[in-house]
Design goal:
Blueprint: H1 11-23, H2 29-36, E1 45-47, H3 58-67, H4 76-90, E2 97-100, H5 104-114, E3 121-125, H6 130-137, E4 142-146, H7 155-161, E5 167-171, H8 183-192, E6 198-202, H9 215-219, E7 224-229, E8 242-245, H10 248-258, H11 265-275, H12 280-301, E9 313-317, H13 322-331, E10 334-336, E11 346-350, H14 354-368
Parallel strand pairs: 1-10, 3-4, 3-5, 5-6, 6-7
Antiparallel strand pairs: 2-8, 7-8, 9-11
Helix pairs in contact: 3-11, 4-11, 5-6, 5-10
């Protein structure tokens, strides 16, 4: 595929993109976190946006520094370099890969392309909200299906809930639970879905675990779109770089809505350098897993309930309205993630550095014990602590 900034782009698709851009504002993780984090603070412990506190790896930082003098140029050739590097790394034909500014554009424009007032958007509950926002703006029915008792996507229930679906969205590891949906379950969904519908698998957090990817389904020419990003494990959330992987005809439908797709010159060189660093994935996965496990062990010792995760985030039970705890933690300058309506007493915690998680633990104890000046214990019924692995509350 030639330079993706200009290939398969026409006057008609330009106007189509302009109309879509006017109607569909992209909503992503920082937007959702900022909506909860009010007023905004420039200092504190930020474990609310699933960012990687390590930032870009050394090779990526060096690539950024080296490219700065060329910052006055567009990045078409560099984007093509990244596209081919990614395709080679995953054993794909380059036509099966498209580069975006993060994984969010692929998600949004994919939802717009494959859902409509007649074709529903099906997702998990709790699940990542960005696709729901895009579906609502496309006039599509949003169908939210509860997770299973093991916190996986309930693919059979998803199929039953929307026989007219246009797009099934699977995030694995899931955001916000950090839990996995087995590969055979995704295969079942792909083989039994309605004709003409698409299965979109968001693998933004796949590098934090050992689960198999679903890229093999895209390689096999199935009706599958896989999303990947450099925002999470690679620590490039602020640089914005991701890819969509699918058959060329599916990518073309997304591209009709995406229009011109000029990438930040710093992002593409940083992503390319990160791909070529043989140690970055294993090392960062180890760091995250170590700190996550230490945090879980501290929570266990202190009797706090949580949903076990294989990602860089997890849901923690507050035993009271989560918004009250979020505000109380913010008063300690520790910013934790938002709540999901289906689980109003759970807040999402991003795994930070050792130091950040120690500050989190100190603030959490103060809030939970009601020893902060800000926090007023609520008169709520006493609940028995939920053990790890128990089903979601009904």
């Amino acid at each position: 595929m030639g330079s993706q900034g200009f290939s398969s782009f026409s006057r008609r698709s330009f106007f189509k993109f302009s109309a879509a851009a006017a109607a569909f504002q992209l909503v992503n993780e920082p937007v959702l976190a900022a909506a909860m984090r009010k007023p905004y603070s420039a200092d504190g412990v930020f474990i609310d946006s699933n960012e990687n506190p390590l930032g870009p790896c050394t090779a990526a930082r060096e690539a950024i520094s080296a490219i700065i003098p060329q910052g006055g140029r567009y990045s078409n050739n560099l984007t093509d370099d990244l596209l081919h590097s990614y395709a080679e790394a995953e054993g794909l034909h380059p036509d099966y890969v498209r580069v975006f500014a993060g994984s969010t554009p692929g998600l949004h424009f994919g939802v717009i392309a494959f859902t409509s007032p007649q074709r529903s958007y099906v997702t998990a509950d709790p699940g990542y909200e960005a696709g729901m926002v895009a579906a609502e703006r496309a006039g599509a029915r949003v169908v939210k299906v509860p997770l299973t008792k093991t916190y996986a996507h309930d693919v059979k229930a998803m199929l039953a809930a929307a026989p007219e679906a246009g797009l099934f969205y699977i995030c694995t590891p899931n955001n916000p639970t950090g839990t996995l949906t087995p590969h055979p379950d995704v295969e079942y969904l792909v083989e039994n879905k309605p004709k003409g519908s698409i299965v979109m698998v968001d693998e933004a957090y796949i590098h934090f675990c050992d689960a198999p990817s679903t890229i093999d389904l895209a390689k096999a020419g199935k009706d599958v779109i896989v999303l990947r990003t450099f925002s999470k494990l690679y620590g490039m959330a602020g640089l914005r770089c991701g890819v969509a992987i699918a058959r060329p005809d599916l990518l073309e439908k997304i591209s009709e809505h995406a229009g011109w797709n000029f990438m930040p010159i710093t992002a593409v060189v940083a992503a390319n350098a990160s791909l070529k660093d043989p140690s970055v994935v294993a090392e960062r996965k180890r760091i995250n897993a170590t700190i996550r496990q230490e945090t879980f062990e501290w929570l266990d010792r202190n009797g706090y309930s949580y949903i076990p995760s294989e990602s860089n985030c997890f849901l923690l039970d507050t035993k009271r309205p989560g918004k009250e705890v979020i505000d109380a933690m913010a008063a300690q300058k520790v910013y934790v993630g938002r709540i999901w309506p289906v689980l109003p007493t759970y807040v999402r915690i991003t795994v930070g550095t050792h130091e950040e998680m120690e500050q989190f633990q100190t603030a959490w104890q103060k809030v939970m014990r009601g020893t902060t000046a800000f926090f007023m214990p609520l008169a709520v019924p006493i609940q028995r602590p939920r053990r790890k692995g128990m089903p979601l509350p009904s």
